[in-house]
Structure formats: structure tokens, C-alpha cells
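Checklist before submission:
- one chain only
- standard amino acids only
- sequence pasted in full

Submission:
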Amino acid sequence: MSFFISDALAEGGAAASQGDPITALLFPIGLLVLFYFFLIRPQSKRAKEQKAMVSALSKGDEVLTQGGILGKITKVNDSFIILEISENVNITVQKSAVGSLMPKGTIKEQK
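Returned file contents:
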């Protein structure tokens, strides 16, 4: 098999490709740092904000669910809320289904 690769190139190439192991680890460590700052950290920050918003829901708040339903909270339980979406029309949804808290008067503007 030595007729394909000369002995001098085979020996010199293997020794030359061996570099400092610290520089070989810099690229994967740099990727991990980038993933943390651009993906993991913002996602956990959004999750904390969503959890705080859901725990602060109270009667009278106007909310928009993730399904696009706009309503006013009439009752709050441990894990469910009752939304009034029209006069005498109430629905029960999970607290985690609330997408955003709307400013007061949003429902009146929509009518």
C-alpha cells in the first residue's frame, strides 16, 4: 500500500496536523456560548415573563388567548379562567392558554 502515498508525506502530514489541543476546543466552546446567548437565555427569559403574567391574572383583565379569542376575565381558579367573550357568553380556558394581557378598553374598541 506504500505505492499510493510516499512514506515521507505520510509521516510528516500526521505530525503536522497535530495542533495545540486548547485551540481545537475553542471552536466548540465558542459555539456553546453563542447558543446560550442567542437561544437558551432569551427563551428562558420569555418563559419567566409568561409565567409571571399568567400568575398575575385577575378578575376584570382583558386578555387575548393563543387561539385568538379576546375576552374579559370574570372568574379565576387555580388553573382555569372564565372569559366573557360576549354578553352572557362565557368560556373556560386554561391559564396557560392566555397569550397576552390587553389594555383596558380593548373590547369596547372592537365593538
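Reviewer check: The longest strand covers residues 70-76.
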